[in-house]
Every structure is written in structure tokens, then in C-alpha cells.
Amino acid sequence: MQIGRKQWAIAEGYIPANSHGPSPEMTSHETACVLNTGDADANVSITIYFTDREPVGPYHIV
């Protein structure tokens, strides 16, 4: 049985510098986790988009 998707868009928001608590315990960060539940290797390509500059990537992960 396969679950998941072949293409994802992960929306992350702007986190102002003063929106987090004391460092390092509450420093804001963003994370994307990928879990491959299949038997074959997953070929993952990640492109990161910004509001104030050109995208970076794609980064390829196997």
C-alpha cells in the first residue's frame, strides 16, 4: 500500500525575530521532514522560495 504524494507544497510563514522566547530554547526555525515508507529509494527535489529574492535549488536528495 502506498500513502503520501508525489508533489508537495509546504507553506511556512514569516517568523519575526522578536516572536520567539529566550534563546536557545525557543528560537524560531522552520523544518520539513520526509519519511520514505516504500521499498524503493525516494528521489527528492527541494526548491526553497523567498518573498524578497530568487528561489534556491533544487536540492536533490536520494
How are the elements arranged and paired?
Layout: E1 44-48, E2 56-61
Antiparallel strand pairs: 1-2
Written description of the protein model:
- This protein is extended.
- It has one domain.
- The chain contains no helices and 2 strands.
- The mean pLDDT is about 80.
- It is an all-beta fold.
- A two-stranded antiparallel sheet has the order 1-2.
Strand order of the largest sheet: 1-2
Total beta strand runs: 2
Percent of residues in helices comes to under 10%
Count of DSSP H/I helices: 0
Structure in a nutshell:
Helices cover 0% and strands 18% of the residues. The protein is mainly β and 62 residues long.
Keywords:
two-stranded antiparallel ribbon, 62 residues, extended, mainly beta
